[in-house]
Amino acid sequence: MGRPDGSLPQVVYPGNELISRRRWKHSQILADHFWARFIRFYVPILQVRQKWQASPADIVQDCVVMIADPQLPRALWPIGRVIKTHLSPDGHIRSADVKVRERVYTRPVARLVVLPALPSGDDEDRSPPTTSSQP
C-alpha cells in the first residue's frame, strides 16, 4: 500500500553497511519475530491444559512430539516420537520417553507438545465415481 507495516520491527541501519548485510540482518530480525510469535501464540494452542475443567487426553505411545526447551535458540527444538509413557500414582501420564534420532530423553508431559498428524490420504475413498446411465 506504500506505507510501512506497523507489525514489523523497525530497524535502522548505518549508512556504511552493504545492502546484502542489511537484508540478512533484517531477515534474521523477521525470523526472530516469527519464532517469538510462534512460541507465544501457536504452541499454547497445541498444548491446552485446562486445570480441573476436564481431564485432558493423555499422551499416547508413537505420537510425534516437540520437546519445548526455552534454552535452545529458535527452530532448534527437537522433534521425536514417544516410545514409552510413565504412569504416576494417580493414574495419569506425567512423563514420557522420547526418541530423537538415536537418543532417548525422559521429559515431563508439560514440556512435550503433541504435533498434529499429517493427513495420510489413505482414508479417502479412491474408487471412481459411479455413473448411472438412463435409457
Can you describe this structure?
This protein is α+β, with helices and mostly antiparallel strands. Helices cover 21% and strands 22% of the residues. Strands 4-3-2-1-5 form a five-stranded antiparallel beta sheet, with no helix packed on it. Strand 3 and strand 4 form a beta hairpin. It is elongated, with a radius of gyration of 23 Å. The chain starts with 18 loop residues before the first helix and ends in a 21-residue tail after the last strand. InterPro entries: DUF5641 (IPR040676). This is DUF5641 domain-containing protein.
Give me the Rg, rounded: 23 Å
Number of strands: 5
Low-confidence parts, pLDDT < 50 over ≥5 residues? 123-135
Briefly note the structural class of the backbone: alpha+beta
Report helical residue fraction.
Answer: 10-25%
Global mean pLDDT: 77
* Spatial strand order of the main sheet: 4-3-2-1-5
CATH topology of the domain at 57-114: SH3 type barrels
Tell me the span between the first and last alpha carbons: 59 Å
The fraction of residues in strands falls at 15-25%
Number of helices: 1
Level-1 CATH class name of the domain at 57-114: Mainly Beta
Topology:
Elements: H1 19-46, E1 64-67, E2 79-87, E3 93-100, E4 103-108, E5 112-114
In short:
InterPro entries: DUF5641 (IPR040676). The protein has 135 residues and is of the alpha+beta class.
Kindly list the characteristics that best describe this protein.
alpha+beta, disordered C terminus, 5-stranded antiparallel beta sheet, 1 helix, 135 residues, SH3 type barrels
